[in-house]
Design a protein that fits this description.
Blueprint lengths: L1 H8 L3 E5 L16 E5 L6 H9 L5 E3 L3 H9 L3 E3 L5 E2 L4 H16 L12 H21 L1
Helix pairs in contact: 1-5, 3-4
Length: 140
């Protein structure tokens, strides 16, 4: 979906990970608007590369809250794969809740996981992507 939206608007999509992302292939059709970077397998290498490539005004999609916090602090528009926007106003609270939950899990306490990804989530992501990518396009 992200590749289709960014290709339609002529906005480059950059993916950085320490392994290929299933379903993400840079083809001749979208090669001018998509780039996949394979980073070293060291801890945080992909996150560090994303932050290095990021410029204020860019849009990032991640469910990794520590990365989202770094990107928000760098002036990016950041959303998760359910279309929820992370802002300076909400990222610290969300990060705090995440860290608390991780602490519980590390101490052997079970907790409820996020609900499965469904059509409603896909629709919310599509709507948020359309809105935010249009804003990015308008700034370029």
């Amino acid at each position: 979906m992200l590749l289709r939206f960014s290709a339609r608007l002529g906005i480059k999509s950059i993916f950085a990970a320490n392994r290929p992302i299933p379903g993400i292939e840079v083809s001749p059709e979208n090669g001018k608007t998509a780039l996949m970077e394979i980073c070293p397998k060291s801890e945080g290498a992909a996150d560090n590369r994303i932050v290095e490539l990021a410029m204020p005004g860019d849009l990032a999609v991640t469910r990794d809250l520590p990365l989202a916090e770094r990107l928000v602090d760098a002036g990016l528009t950041v959303m998760d794969d359910r279309g929820r926007l992370f802002t300076k106003e909400n990222i610290r609270e969300l990060r705090s809740l995440r860290d608390f939950t991780v602490g519980l899990a590390q101490n052997g306490l079970d907790f409820e996981r996020t609900a499965s990804y469904g059509k409603k989530d896909v629709s919310a992501l599509a709507n948020s992507l359309d809105r935010e990518l249009s804003k990015v396009k308008g700034r370029r």
